[in-house]
Amino acid sequence: MAATGKIQKVQPLLLQLETNKEDYFPVTVSFGPYHHGEPELAFVEAFKPKAVQLFISGAPERYEFYHTKVVNIIGDIRNCYEEASVASYSDDYLSEMMLRDASLMIIYMEISTLEQIDELMLDKLRAMRDELGMLITLAILSRDLLLLQNQIPLFVMELLMDLRYGAGKFDSLLNRYLCMAIYGEYREKIVCSKHVHLVEAIHMLVVSEPEKTSHGCCKCTLFSCFKVTQESNDAPNACYSCKLLCCPRVKKDLETGASQQTNPGLIHQLLNFCTCKNNRRAKEDNIKKFVHSFRSVTELKAKGIHFKPNSTQSLMDVSFESGFFYGSLQLPEWGVSKKTRVTFMNLIAYEFNPKSPASGQVAAYISFMKSLIEKPEDVKELREKKIFYNMLGSDEEVFNVYKDINTYGAENPMQFSKVRDKIQEHYNSRAKTWLAEILHTNFRSPWTATAFLAALAALGMSAGQLYFAVYPNS
Questions:
Q1: Membrane-spanning residues where (predicted)?
Q2: In the chain, what is the straight-line distance between the N-terminal and C-terminal CA atoms, in Å?
């Protein structure tokens, strides 16, 4: 039943910058043992026993029933954390911690999605509002749920939901909550409760492409073969590394868990770089190949490149089409809010963990977007094209959010490389960009366009007068 991975702490390297520390630490509530008992989190901690009672209210079973069920899986729970962080807790105490934290998290997810409004749900909402206040209930608590080292195993929540409401209810709740939290609306996305923790589930959600099928072997999808995907932006055909990772030996390791001590995401990157026979970038030992001269959104717009939102909302769904006089760059939609920086920083921290199966997809997306956003005017263009939904206020605030997200220079240069190359090729083509440059240089405002048309009209009238002067009988 239990997932086999661990809930890791943020790597010490990422905590060295004081400006980044606040993105990794909770401000109101602890989930799990890593921040348990910190004095500044005592206010919400005192509410957790009531959260348990709210969760089990209306059920025939009492507190002891649920507590015993958690004790029965305490070994799996311990295996999800660094040993030093749980060694001092008895099985009984750690089980109580999990029951309290899981109850609060489930209640918060329920009132955040409000699939059905009944008296029991209203009681939960009123209790949280009266005890914690609306600010914590509706805003700050959701921020602390997104932190990498502030997590509990999802299988604990699934167990409690199965006991309280029946089997299969937790997947539905998790799917609704994550789609509402990330996209602001419910979408038919596949979110699996078998992920170890919430941050991992969010990562899978935002980088997956459920509507697209792979052209590689064994239908390598995000949820199999170490998440080796044949992504539309980089590898249209199966590569050797994909075949290697899908071989029987690796499949056997996947089934037995023998490969968990390696970083399959990194292995995939290295194998791709060294062995992909269809990828000419891997054959060219030239660092300049990964350096592109095009810069911001406004600069690309001046070259006739237009921006459109994609339909999948996957951060990996970035594509470029080059036309005769214009280009079209499709980017994922994203609502930028006060939680955006924290969300991305913790997803990147998850990717940077040595034992994470991720391969730096979010870091690559952020790096790509930062290369396009050099000033608030770039944000304005993306907002007007419905790529950014600004929930902060000014375009400058959105610009600052992306500017402050640190990828630590460790993103995969191969990610989006084909898209970058296509943009660069279009950018360098005088045949495709000359008309756009003329229009951008000479017709930046309606007044210049009006003046140009007036000049053409005057020139036409002068030509007509000259013609009739030379040929009066015509």
A1: 447-470
A2: 94
